[in-house]
Amino acid sequence: MAEAYIVGAVRTPVGKKKGGLSTVHPTDLAAHTLKALIERTGVDPAAVEDVILGCVMQFGPQSMDIARNAWLSAGLPETVPGVTIDRQCGSSQQSIHFAAQGVMSGTQDLVVAGGVESMSVVPMGSSIKAALDMGMPFPFGEMWVERYGKQEISQFRGAELMCEKWGYTREVLEQFALESHQRAAKAIANGYFKEQIAPINGVEDDEGPRADTTLEKMGTLKTLKEGGQITAATSSQISDGSGAVLIASEQAVKDHGLTPRARIHQLALLGDDPVYMLTAPIPATQRALKKAGMSIDQIDVVEINEAFAPVPLAWTHELGADPAKVNPNGGAIALGHPLGGTGAILMTKLLHELERTGGRYGLQTMCEGGGQANVTIIERL
């Protein structure tokens, strides 16, 4: 099978809700990242065979195939098509999988993968409200109810169910959240993210991290559910952002004088209980490692999306991973989670951290709506 190489990866800073990126049209947000990717890699944009972007709320300003519209907005060749996909929070990680698989199959040589989400412009749940306005149950019909019954299906309930199953108290979750902010603040102060970010709208750094937060401050927040453990402090932040990655074949590397920065080593997917919703990264990672013939100890850097604190905590426990290797520069609790953009943003962070530290293998995973997970293992070159 042909190899697929990452030859470029860039992201916007992640803006907080109603922050510095909230006035940027989502199409322009993605266009900015695509343009930066082409400029930084120096590739002929007409040679790109497809643009695959993830976006969750494909509604309003994010509708009508934002991948195609963003490419054109960036002033790039009309001959290059684009497609927008939705695997919930894993949408742009899935776009990387599709791009890599196109190259590995031998049917494509140069593919852009990425994602975008402006949660300030298109609030989470916009499509649900639209469906209810149409008079239809959302998102489940009668056949779903026959299988799973009438019960709450949400990421918030899933997070609480994880706390119950693994015995995580509010205090444990808040300690994890505090460390996420501390790691992110340190990374920003030390300039770890500078090379990977394409500033936009006057914003140069991620806006989410709170260097001055404390356990005492977190303790004043109300839980999202009465009697529950989860608060806003132990949940991912509502954010705006975009990321893009250029995937190339060996032939494209030669033809365009590109420098391979990492090799796609393993791709895996798995579904799990849709009621728990957030647990799939655990068995999906186990599958990926087994397919790769690797142990978790061989992984130098892990990026797992901090949708809620129990997700990375349970994953780290079940996999026996070294906590120091997991989200070493903070995660979505501090840095934010712009839904469809997060997968490409995490991959950009993962690649740059491997290069900064000299690590060899990196692993990325995240929980996704419907109880799903993507796992990507890359090898730095």
Automatic annotation (TrEMBL):
Family: Belongs to the thiolase-like superfamily. Thiolase family.
EC number(s) given by UniProt: 2.3.1.174
Sequence intervals crossing the membrane: none
SUPFAM superfamilies from the UniProt entry: Thiolase-like
GO molecular function annotations of the record: 3-oxoadipyl-CoA thiolase activity
All residue ranges annotated as the Thiolase N-terminal domain in the record: 5-251
Organism: Nonomuraea coxensis DSM 45129
Name of the protein described by the UniProt record: Beta-ketoadipyl-CoA thiolase
UniProt keyword terms in alphabetical order: Acyltransferase, Transferase
Xref: PANTHER family: ACETYL-COA C-ACYLTRANSFERASE (PTHR43365:SF1), BLR7806 PROTEIN (PTHR43365)
Signal peptide from the UniProt entry: none
InterPro entries in the cross-refs: Thiolase, Thiolase-like, Thiolase_C, Thiolase_CS, Thiolase_N
Organismal lineage: Bacteria, Bacillati, Actinomycetota, Actinomycetes, Streptosporangiales
